[in-house]
């Protein structure tokens, strides 16, 4: 069922008993007015459906809610809240859909005001078209609601050149602001710099960086070094299982003291066609270097007659050879994976007569970590990768309120490794 609340605001009861309000606006002032109308409508709706004695009794037993019970009808309105403001920049329609899907999946876990910016032609006339959607879902206990807001802003012309001015009036006072840029962020350019000044945290996906990825990776390192924002990277998060499985091999008693005896690292990277994207490989090697205090002696460079890239790390006076090898694979394997994905990681270790090999290999959505001592298998550990969707990683990033020092060390060394 649907009821018209104002000339441009519609309230709908959808499946599951949730209420959804939708409105349109053509200016920031109208967006703010629509939000006021939505929550006024929400308050009026609850005022006509006071809590039952059973609901009130349950709420009184919850210390988070008891102090709000001045009147029975107040509690649902007063517990409507956002834990943050999420700003998403999505110029392409497909990016907008991906972002909305991820935000919707996380609505219960991270109730927020999501502002989705879709900048259009910066040289056209100044335009702003806003679609506002808000919804409230009553909890299973019936004594509280989780509410979310989505404000989708399509802007063009001069308005598209000053996104921070569009966002600033819509931020919720005293709540953290997270900027998510799903595609390649224009790090260093004015729209990016201005938006960065209004947020607390930045979320990107270095795995989406194209041919100019090294410059963008260096730009991320600069954002951290200058203290502009806390940075989280979905590309880095996708390497978590790779890192855990490799590190887990060295829990074996025979390998616990062998990390200081690394001779060579070989990273196989999917290259179905076109550019050889080395960002994930660089972050993985940067993680090893950061954790084991290795320095970058020589950054990645090509050699005549080889498709691989080569670098040198240094531990004291000891050099460690690094090779990034393109993996084309066969149909159904590396050739169908996204460019830049890791397919295999190999470490060669040992001195004297001992030869140790630690390997993590990908087969479809599974990883297998193995270690050998002089050719004899000594440990084997499997793992399964997360689904490719962004929602789990977005949720993880929203949970991480502080700096990720391990990532920051890895990023600094990865930037030097690729010559940034």
Account of the protein in words:
The structure is a single chain. This protein is α/β, with parallel strands linked by helices and 420 residues long. The protein has two domains: 198 residues, no CATH class; 181 residues, Dihydrodipicolinate Reductase, domain 2 (2-Layer Sandwich), CATH 3.30.360. The chain has 13 helices and 18 strands. The strands form two sheets. It has a ten-stranded mixed β-sheet, with helices on both faces. An eight-stranded mixed β-sheet has the order 12-13-14-11-15-16-17-18. Helix 8 crosses helix 13 and helix 11 crosses helix 13. The chain starts with a strand and ends with a helix.
Oligomer: single chain
Tell me the overall shape. elongated
Structural class: alpha/beta
> Strand arrangement, largest sheet?
1-2-3-6-7-5-4-8-9-10
Radius of gyration: 26 Å
User: In total, how many beta strands?
Assistant: 18
Low-confidence stretches: 1-7, 62-79
Strand residue percentage: 25-35%
First CA to last CA: what distance? 57 Å
User: Helical stretch count?
Assistant: 13
Largest sheet, described in full? 10 strands, mixed
Helix coverage percent: 25-40%
The figure for the number of domains is 2
The average pLDDT score comes to 84
Structure keywords:
420 residues, alpha/beta, Dihydrodipicolinate Reductase, domain 2, ten-stranded mixed β-sheet, 13 helices, 18 strands, disordered N terminus
Would you summarize the structure shown here?
The protein is α/β, with parallel strands linked by helices and 420 residues long. 30% of the residues lie in helices and 32% in strands.
């Amino acid at each position: 069922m649907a009821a018209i609340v104002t000339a441009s605001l519609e309230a709908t009861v959808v499946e599951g008993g949730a209420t959804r309000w939708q409105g349109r606006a053509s200016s920031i002032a109208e967006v703010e007015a629509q939000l006021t109308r939505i929550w006024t409508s929400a308050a009026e709706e609850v005022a006509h459906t006071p809590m039952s004695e059973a609901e009130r009794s349950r709420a009184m037993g919850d210390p988070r809610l008891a102090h709000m019970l001045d009147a029975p009808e107040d509690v649902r309105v007063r517990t409507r809240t956002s834990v943050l403001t999420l700003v998403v920049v999505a110029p392409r329609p497909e990016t907008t859909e991906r972002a909305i899907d991820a935000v919707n999946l996380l609505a219960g876990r991270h109730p927020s005001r999501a502002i989705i910016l879709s900048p259009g032609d910066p040289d056209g006339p100044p335009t702003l078209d806003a679609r506002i959607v808000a919804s409230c879902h009553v909890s299973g206990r019936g004594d509280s609601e989780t509410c979310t807001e989505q404000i989708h802003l399509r802007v063009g012309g001069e308005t598209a050149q000053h996104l921070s001015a569009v966002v600033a009036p819509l931020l919720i006072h005293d709540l953290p602001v997270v900027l998510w840029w799903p595609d390649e962020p224009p790090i260093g350019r004015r729209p990016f710099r201005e938006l960065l000044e209004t947020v607390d945290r930045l979320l990107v996906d270095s795995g989406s960086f194209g041919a100019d990825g090294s410059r963008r990776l260096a730009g991320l390192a600069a954002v951290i070094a200058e203290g502009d924002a806390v940075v989280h990277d979905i590309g880095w998060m996708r390497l978590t299982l790779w890192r855990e499985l490799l590190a887990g091999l060295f829990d074996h008693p025979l390998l616990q003291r062998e990390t200081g005896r690394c001779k060579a690292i070989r990273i196989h990277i999917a290259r179905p066609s076109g550019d050889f994207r080395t960002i994930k490989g660089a972050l993985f090697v940067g993680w090893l270097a950061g954790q084991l205090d290795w320095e970058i002696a020589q950054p990645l460079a090509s050699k005549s007659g080889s498709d691989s890239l080569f670098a040198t790390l240094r531990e004291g006076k000891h050099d460690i050879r690094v090779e990034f090898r393109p993996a084309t694979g066969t149909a159904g394997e590396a050739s169908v994976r996204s460019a830049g994905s890791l397919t295999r990681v190999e470490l060669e270790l040992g001195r004297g007569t001992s030869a140790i090999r630690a390997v993590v290999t990908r087969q479809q959505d599974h990883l297998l970590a193995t270690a050998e001592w002089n050719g004899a298998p000594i440990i084997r550990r499997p793992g399964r990768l997360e689904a490719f969707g962004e929602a789990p990683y977005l949720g993880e990033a929203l949970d991480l309120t502080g700096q990720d020092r391990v990532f920051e060390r890895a990023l600094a060394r990865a930037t030097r490794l690729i010559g940034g």
